[in-house]
Amino acid sequence: MTTACDDFLTQTTPHLSRLFRVGMRLTHQASEAQDLVQEALMKAWANWHRYQPGGSLGAWLSRILVNTFISRHRHQRVVDVTAARSDLLDHLFDGGRLDEASDPEQVWHGQGLSDEVLAALDGLPAHYREVVELVDLHGLAYRDAADQMGCPLGTVMSRLHRARRLLRDQLTDYARECGLAAAPAA
User: Fold this and answer.
1) What distance in Å separates the CA atoms of residue 172 and residue 60, rounded to the nearest whole number?
2) pTM for this structure?
3) Who's near 145: CB < 8 A, 6+ residues apart?
4) How many Å apart are CA 67 and CA 88, to the nearest integer?
């Protein structure tokens, strides 16, 4: 006698490699794709009673996978906006100017960035600098920045991530000198 779990495993196993390929197209990282597939399969198992036998199981699983990705992306967008503001406070602004950071555009126009930060921004490749200015300094949403730059949303997110990493690498010592970053572990 087969159980619901055995039935689920038997029917979904042939679709795993395709789900992983779709996950890779969505996330571009194997570990993220694996996590996405696992989460989608957990949701499929929780809703297995809703699956109509005879329907397209592959399409049903793919829809769950895509919806899971979209949900994660929406959540990550909120997290990224919060992290972007935190990164600015932690790594880009002088200690004496943190109160001004609540209005990044005013700080930018008021030359509220230190010479070191301006030099680091100037040292970025133009496509990275543009996305940092639009999103982090002017407060544009990722979608609005993508529209203004004429590129896909994922490109904006990727460039912003890389630009922040470059700025963090260049400004860590400076941030430490200003008391904005923890001292390195001994």
Assistant:
1) 47
2) 0.42
3) 131, 134, 135, 156
4) 32
**Which residues, including other chains, have CB under 8 Å from residue 117's CB and lie 6 or more apart?**
92, 93, 94, 171, 174
Show Cβ contacts of residue 57 under 8 Å, excluding neighbours closer than 6 positions: 11, 12, 15, 51
CB 141 within 8 A of CB 183: no
Compute the distance between CA of residue 66 and CA of residue 170 in angstroms, rounded to an integer. Answer: 37
φ and ψ of 152, to 5 deg? -65, 155
Kind plus residue range of the DSSP H or E element containing 32: helix 30-46
pLDDT digits (tens, 9 = 90+) for 141-161: 889 899 999 999 999 999 999
CA distance 44 to 60: 9
Q: Which domains does the chain have, with CATH numbers?
A: 4-74 (1.10.1740.10), 93-177 (1.10.10.10)
Report yes or no: 168 and 180 within 8 Å, Cβ to Cβ: no
